[in-house]
Amino acid sequence: MPLWKRNLVVVWIGSFLTAAALSLVLPFLPLFIEELGVNGRQEITTWSGVAFGATFLVAAIVSPIWGRLADKKGRKLMLLRASLGMSIVMFLISFVQDVYQLVFLRLVMGAVSGFISAGITLIASQTPKEKSGWALGTLSTGGIAGGLLGPLIGGFLADMIGLRPVFLFTSIPLFLTFLVTYFFVKEDFVPLQTKSMASAKEIIQSLRHPELILSLFLTTFLIQFAAQSISPILSLYVRELSPGTERLALLSGIVASAPGIAALIAAQRLGRLSDKIGAERVLFYALLIFAAFLIPQAFVTDTSQLIILRMGIGFATAALMPSVQALLRKHTPANAAGRIFGYNQSAQFMGNFLGPLAGGQIAGHFGFEALFLFTGLIVLTNAVLERTQTAVLSKKHS
């Protein structure tokens, strides 16, 4: 088996375990904040957005640093750093006494996180370009599957053993990820000397299509902004749709997992489709589908309708990020892959930070309906901008 395929298997397992561990807490994060002494819908939604987004604010800042270090020292080191660091932080979160301590540790989590992004960089840099769509689509199923099972397990455990012990539970698979990566990931990496590494300005200038790369960064940001805007307050929306339910955490876990079901089924097929017809076309139509299933969530009247629409979101998501990553891989020099993917991760993390923060404020002041309408319009605008950029690129080649 080629080295890149063997690493794909190992990184897939690590991505699955990491995503499962991190998504365990999502269905009940607002409930945990409420348990820490925060009261009132607006206060809870605000603190949920802050606590959820804090990780991604710091991650957006440090991601280019880790990307530069990955180009210099290797991607495996970044995988080890992220998995071990997240395991330690998640263990400590189980002992927090107030919301300020929670937000602080979520900030630390952002500083050490990044397993999945480092894994993407490793696989993208090793995979033949003609196989990149399939490989990145396959890799995305690891995170999708982990994200699918994580909320279900988290919701079940929260109802059975309480909220706080779940954080202890999440540190275990993260540490297992560290061990699996240490013993099984093999990287044929030649370190770059610091003096031979180009600056960020030189990297952008060396790109064949810098406008396309920058537009892909923007697309990554807007995708995550829209997708994550509801995540930290999802359980509150479920409670509004299903008042009186005795299994709120578990039901929220099912709703949170719904996109993963469709994404898990579709990811590999859409990856092959991207290799066949072009990632540009897949990206555009996936954005339209994303908006088509996002906007109607403002008008649902029960949880079952929300689950169906969020499965549609998952179908679109299965095509979005692998298409962006395939385009980045196609138009990025190999010696700058770590930093370009690092910049893209910064854009993703900023979307993860600002999305929940804005989502909490919009939902708290204007209601959940306004949130879905606002983010749906953002995605539609993104589709138009991306289509315009690829059209300009096509004219240059004609």
UniProtKB/TrEMBL annotation:
Keyword Membrane: yes
Keyword Nucleus: no
UniProt signal peptide: none
Cited Pfam families: MFS_1, Sugar_tr
Localization in the cell: Cell membrane
Annotated membrane topology: Multi-pass membrane protein
Keyword vocabulary terms for this entry: Cell membrane, Membrane, Transmembrane, Transmembrane helix, Transport
Principal subcellular localisation of the protein: membrane
Major facilitator superfamily (MFS) profile domain residues: 7-394
PANTHER family (UniProt xref): MULTIDRUG RESISTANCE PROTEIN MDTG
Protein name: Multidrug efflux MFS transporter
Organism: Exiguobacterium antarcticum
Classification lineage: Bacteria, Bacillati, Bacillota, Bacilli, Bacillales
